[in-house]
Amino acid sequence: MVPNVQGAYKISRKQAAQMLKVSVRTLDRYINKRIITSKNIAGRILLNEEELITHVKQTRTHTPIHKQPHSQTIRIERLENNEQVQESDLVNSVEERVYKKLYDEIREDVKNFQQRLEGANYRVGQLESQLKASVPLLEHQALLTGHKKEIFNKRILYITLGVILAFQPIWIILAYF
What global pTM score does this model have? Predict the structure, then answer.
């Protein structure tokens, strides 16, 4: 018996991207690299929910710094239980604060870079639209050389016409003799 393929594939790309905490574009890259399988059902790209859950479990092995338990709360619990606080616990809390501070600084830098990148992408889009409206340089040069050839051809025509008109009286005289 063939399993129901449509039943297994019921998550949209947008929902899957939110589930994986990545952009839709990154999700498309995963699909293209065949990291995640997809099915085109009725013109929509759908993903397997179970496969996404296993992918999340495989890729998310660490917990973010802001979700890790703080050693200060552990130290307070030990003090309440009359346990001695060791020097290594104090060093760990200092290290955690330093790491958290570095994490926050890097996160802020990434936000700034992201904003600058979005601004640059916007400007590139503006320049591309201006470029589409303009005449390409090669075509412009071809138009100029075509115009120069036209002027040259007109000069040859005028010179030829001038020579013919200049010799016309001589032909008329020769025609009567």
Answer: 0.34
